[in-house]
Design a protein that fits this description.
single chain, 184 residues, alpha/beta, five-stranded mixed β-sheet, 5 strands, 47% helix
């Protein structure tokens, strides 16, 4: 499976975040940095999350995409737009209730002119932002930070719909109990 890759570009009020390949929790630190960056940028007019080349996006990464959509929701006239092509990714977006925080678009339904606009605004020349973290070499502090990010992402997803609350409550309880057992 393709390793996940993140690219981002901000130009003329448009922020495009492009995720490609298999996007997993190891990229959540980079996703969180992009959320912080976009939340603070001046002149933001629209946000596109381009998942057309993503083959999988795990729940932690989806949680940070929801965080991004929520962070900009009150600043934009139109909600953030999530464009995906892979059927599994589209299904995950629907099941997770992404339509509550963003406009989810099937790339196959876009007219050619809109596809061309999206390609023109793409991140093809932007460098990859990946800072994948290898879990085997993680320090206790890095493990704690990762656990905190997983908790944050899933708590956000739980707010989107009842399905997510039922699905992720056991994970939240497990991670919270591990967090309480850690020395401070």
């Amino acid at each position: 499976m393709d390793e996940g890759r993140i690219q981002a570009v901000f130009e003329d009020g448009l922020f495009v975040l492009k995720l490609s390949g298999d996007v997993r929790l190891t990229l959540c630190a980079t996703l969180d940095q992009q959320v912080q960056r976009v939340a603070a940028v001046e002149g933001l007019e629209s946000v596109i999350i381009d998942l057309r080349e993503a083959t999988n996006v795990d729940s932690t990464a989806l949680g940070f995409l929801a965080k991004l959509a929520l962070a900009v929701r009150d600043r934009l006239v139109m909600p953030a737009q999530v464009v995906a092509a892979h059927p599994d990714v589209l299904t995950m977006l629907k099941v997770m209730g992404f339509d509550e925080v963003a406009s989810v678009v099937d790339a196959g339904s876009l007219p050619e002119a809109d596809q061309a606009d999206l390609d023109g605004a793409s991140c093809s020349n932007a460098p990859a932002l990946n800072e994948s973290q290898d879990d085997a070499d993680a320090s206790p502090q890095q493990e704690q930070e990762l656990r905190g990010r997983i908790l944050e992402a899933h708590r956000l997803l739980m707010c989107l719909n009842g399905h997510n609350r039922l699905e992720f409550q056991p994970l939240i309880e497990l991670l919270e109990s591990e967090e309480h057992r850690q020395p401070h």
